[in-house]
Specification:
3 domains, 5-stranded parallel beta sheet, Methyltransferase, Cobalt-precorrin-4 Transmethylase, Domain 2, Rossmann fold, Cobalt-precorrin-4 Transmethylase, domain 1, 38% helix
């Protein structure tokens, strides 16, 4: 009977290839695999063996080639890095066999899978013993799995307190997903002191091993050749090794035997924004215009109904504006501000370094108070109606680059005002465009207000902004947002000097 052997060749060292796999390779009539992996098995291939190598993302072609060779009566080995059944070729070969049988062919081809040492097992051995208890494996590649599905799985792993190994953590095009994973783990109560280990090129000459904590972990140190290991609530670091206990010793016995060491806090405490500060919520009333009087009373009412009373002043000021505009107290959960973002941006306005606000749509520009703009010498601009936008989108269509009008508007804005405050209340594609221009070094915004609204690319566009740590950001998380929110958050920045007295509405 013709045979296909799907063999896991381990993470990359000859010492990590199992004897069974070596025997299969040395006896194969043909070997099919990704060309990069042949360097690890070449010494064991018998003379005359046909070797078919293909490039990346050619998995289906490799499997089809294996079946064609097997149908010729050859013993074929399909090589896969790590373990062939773990993000490897084995599931694809079995699926293809099933489809071919259903189609009336390949029924006499036997498929055998030989296990290999996986990358996460090799990484774990180099880190110490991080997988001593229940483990969850998650791939961040969203090529064939929707990001919403991946995000649900990340949350489940975090809530379940699993030790979590992360495959495909990052690539040139996927730069924000690992930041989002860390954010979700912290949001779901995993302590910032949780040990995190990551291994690059495990088992290969370029091997690098690093141990840090979830709070200090820097995704910029990671690439597509890296496996990331996040500990559970019991994991700890001792003598340079990351250890997750099974439960044979209690914590006091471990302290006695290994010396005093820090364990991760168990309370899961976290704060959504920066340092806690008290802010006055009352002030003497004075004769006011009716509109401003109503707004002050509204802000006081909102402040009394907030679940938390100790927000930093600048976050509170933005939050009060957001709730006042929407009457939606969910803003308390979904409005994110970088520490001191509002105050920092106001200081740039006050000292004259921030002179322009760029918006994605005209409704945002319309909602920014004209009195505040005039008082502070700020210009608010939207490029959507600029004649050059139509020319740019038409030109792009000729080169098969489909861009929206809001994307084109942001490109023009960056050419003329690369250091503006950018406020988005409608178009996630425009926000994604700005992120791309920042990464290319073409834009250096003074700040970003990310509040696009909708159902497609909205969440992802907001995740893409967060890695830019040096840029002050205000973000309305999730699907919610809107032009009115983006505008009111601009107004919160422009009137921050009224925050301490809780006296909104000066420019009504």
């Amino acid at each position: 009977m013709a045979k296909i052997i799907v063999a896991g060749i381990g993470p990359g060292s000859k010492d990590d290839i199992t004897p069974a796999v070596l025997e299969a390779i040395s006896g194969a009539d043909a070997i099919v695999g990704y060309k990069y992996y042949f360097q690890f098995v070449e010494p064991y291939v018998k003379p005359g063996c046909e070797c078919i190598d293909t490039g990346m993302k050619r998995e289906r072609e490799r499997a089809e080639q294996a079946f064609r060779l097997a149908e010729e009566g050859k013993t074929v080995v399909v090589i896969s890095s790590g373990d062939a059944g773990l993000y490897g070729m084995a599931p694809l070969v079995y699926e293809m066999q099933r489809n071919r049988v259903a189609g009336g062919s390949a029924s006499d081809i036997d498929v055998v899978v030989l296990p290999g040492i996986s990358a996460f097992q090799k990484a774990a051995s180099l880190l110490g013993a991080p997988i001593g208890h229940d483990v969850c494996l998650i791939s961040l590649s969203d090529l064939m799995t929707p990001w919403e599905v991946i995000e649900r799985r990340i949350k489940a792993a975090a809530v379940g307190d699993f030790v979590t190994a992360v495959y495909n953590p990052k690539s040139h095009g996927r730069y924000w997903q690992l930041y989002r994973l860390v954010e979700l783990f912290l949001q779901e109560g995993r302590s910032p002191e949780t040990p995190v280990g990551f291994v690059r090129q495990a088992g290969r000459p370029e091997q690098e091993v690093t141990i840090t904590t979830l709070g200090q972990f820097n995704p910029e140190q990671v690439d597509m050749f890296t496996v990331v290991m996040i500990g559970n609530s019991q994991s700890y670091v001792a003598d340079g090794k990351m250890i997750t206990p099974r439960g044979y010793y209690n914590s006091e016995e471990r302290r006695v035997e290994s010396g005093e060491f820090a364990t991760a806090p168990q309370d899961g405490s976290s704060v959504h924004v920066g340092a806690v500060a008290n802010s006055p919520l009352s002030t003497l009333r004075s004769p006011l215009k009716k509109g401003q009087d109503i707004m002050i009373e509204s802000f006081r009412t909102i402040a009394k109904e907030l679940k938390r009373k100790d927000y930093p002043l600048d976050h509170q000021w933005a939050l009060l504006h957001a709730i006042h505009t929407t009457a939606d107290f969910e803003m308390e959960q979904i409005l994110y501000t970088d520490p001191q973002a509002v105050e920092t941006l106001y200081k740039k306005v006050a000292n004259g370094t921030l002179k322009t606000i760029v918006t994605d749509v005209t409704m945002v520009t319309s909602g920014i108070r004209k009195g505040a703009l005039q008082r502070l010498g700020i210009e608010a601009k939207c490029y959507l109606s600029d004649p050059r936008v139509a020319d740019m989108t038409a030109q792009a269509s000729l080169t098969s680059e489909a861009i929206t009008r809001t994307q084109a508007g942001i490109r023009l804005a960056v050419e003329e005002h690369p250091d503006a405050l950018f406020a988005f209340g409608n178009a996630p594609t425009a926000l994604m465009e700005l992120c791309d221009l920042i990464r290319k070094g073409k834009a250096r915004p003074a700040g970003i207000i990310a509040a696009p609204v909708g159902f497609v690319h909205v969440r992802e566009s907001k995740h893409m902004v967060k890695p830019f740590k040096e840029i002050p950001k205000i973000i309305v998380e999730g699907r919610k947002g809107g032009s009115n929110l983006a505008a009111t958050l601009c107004n919160a920045i422009l009137t921050f000097d009224d925050a301490e007295q809780l006296k909104p509405g000066r420019d009504l």
